[in-house]
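Hey team,

Filing this mostly as a record. A colleague (T.K.) asked me to run one chain through the structure pipeline before their review meeting, and I want the input and output archived in the tracker in case anyone asks later how it was produced. No errors, nothing strange. Just documentation.

Input sequence:
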Amino acid sequence: MSPLNPEISDQSVARLLHDLRQPICNIGLGLFYLNLLLGEPGGKLQEQIRALEEQADRASRLISQAAAELDRRPTQPAASLELTNPATSAVT
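Output structure:
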């Protein structure tokens, strides 16, 4: 369970991280191609694109770190069930 809200499962957090990663990657890829289209390095627009690329990279790293932390957490044990062996139950 998530330490912030015990009602939010680790699986829900993993899905959220995945859903956040997708648009961040698309933004980074779009900025990369925009930079290629502009050609000549320099200028205010390319400075802004570079700043956006850095922020997209930062967001991607944070998401990856959160996902790695989630993977390192111990899994919650399933509720223990008391199973009986039908062969021994019939004998006793």
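Quick notes for T.K.: Residues 10-38 form the longest helix (29 residues). The chain has one domain: 10-76.
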